[in-house]
Amino acid sequence: MSQKTLTVTDNASGKTVDFPIRSGTHGPDVVDIKSLYSQFGYFTYDPGFTSTASCRSDITFIDGDEGILLYRGYPIDQLAEKSSFLEVSYLLLYGELPTADQLSEFTSSITRHNMVNESLKNFFNGFHYDAHPMAMLTAVVGSLSAFYHESIDVNDPASREICAHRIIAKMPTISAAAFKHMIGEPFIYPQNTLSYTGNFLNMLFSRPNEDYEVNPIAEKALDQLLILHADHEQNASTSTVRLAGSTGTNPFAAIASGCAALWGPAHGGANEAVLNMLEEIGDVSNVPKFIDKAKDKEDPFRLMGFGHRVYKNYDPRATIIRKTCHEVLNELGMSNDPQLELAMRLEEIALQDEYFVERKLYPNVDFYSGIIYRALGIPTEFFTVLFALGRTPGWIAQWMEMSADPEQRIGRPRQIYTGAATRDYVSIDKR
């Protein structure tokens, strides 16, 4: 029992109870209110869970006020600059950066599992040609439950580990297949001689009738974006994975639920919304007019890619990706890209305008990532799939941690019922 407590008094009854306070490595302390209902007969009311810690976790820490993001204690800028996506995936899963031998073994395991069952080709053929790629991704990831069902014991650490390797390995193959179906080209099989990200780019853009060489600048940029998206504490999709996983469901089904949650424009669809906004603005000369529209509370227009629910300072991921954005555009000969010019003008105004500064509406990672994806030749509607690909190791690490937590119970949020009081049934002829 914690020595720190919070004393709560029910003014109606005069009853007083001390609740223990738990402390983490970083961040605010939390009040352990598990016994609140049994002590007082009350639930707490917290729409959006903005003040509720639903679990304990060793994986990711965010300080939104200071603009800090840590994976297992490592600052995101150090990992994005010096690490690789698979190394970060290992870190999220196992808690420590791998040795050279551990990384080699992990990479080999991921490579061995990157193929998917051939019958999934028929699954993709069942989708209409213009189906949204997130619809395909969500459905196909969920369908993996049919291939790996009896062999998965969620209570067995070794079984959970194999499952983690499988989903990290197969997600690029499934994502690339969704892309190829979307553009009407044949599926490309994985190439085990390429890196994780290089292999994904090859499956996206190569064709059977011509050679394709992975651009190392594009490969590095995409790998870095995947690192930046790998985990982000208890966000909507991660919490969805944990909630679904708490039932003991098949882990592929839990990850599919995360894909579905990520699809929302307020979450993973945000970078797609940024490009749509830039196209709506159209030209740099229109920026002042749209800035005024964004300030007008009566106007439905909103600047997408500015501000963040968590970060009350500059999004640390945006600082990293801004530099990469320029590198990619210069490498691809797109330094004069009109959308980049438009984006930079928006950023310049937002960082100086009193309205945005007071509200700390700084550019976030979605502001720049969409521009990079477009420069790489990736259609706007595919952006969220890339987000899901990056977030997969975080989802599966959170699922593994939850499954091993002895305090974990099936998720069961409470509510305030505001519907009709008890009433008797009235037969249809008397209504």
Compose a concise summary of this entry.
Helix 2 runs antiparallel to helix 9. The chain is mainly α.
CATH superfamily (homologous) name of the largest domain? Citrate Synthase, domain 1
Please, what is the average pLDDT?
90
Largest sheet: 3 strands, antiparallel
Shape: globular
Number of strands: 6
Rg measurement, Å: 24 Å
Write a structural description.
With 431 residues, this protein is mainly α. The protein has 2 domains: 5-53, Rubrerythrin, domain 2, CATH 2.20.28.60; 64-404, Citrate Synthase, domain 1 (Orthogonal Bundle). Helices cover 51% and strands 6% of the residues. It has helices at 36-40, 76-82, 85-94, 100-112, 120-125, 133-147, 157-183, 196-205, 216-229, 236-245, 251-262, 270-281, 287-295, 316-331, 338-352, 354-358, 365-375, 383-404, and strands at 5-9, 16-22, 30-31, 60-63, 68-71, 74-75. It has a 3-stranded antiparallel β-sheet, with no helix packed on it. A hairpin with a 7-residue loop joins strand 2 and strand 3. The radius of gyration is 24 Å and the shape is globular. The protein starts with a strand and ends in a 27-residue tail after the last helix. The mean pLDDT is 90. The active site is at residues 308, 366. Keywords: Transferase, Tricarboxylic acid cycle. Pathway: Carbohydrate metabolism; tricarboxylic acid cycle; isocitrate from oxaloacetate: step 1/2.
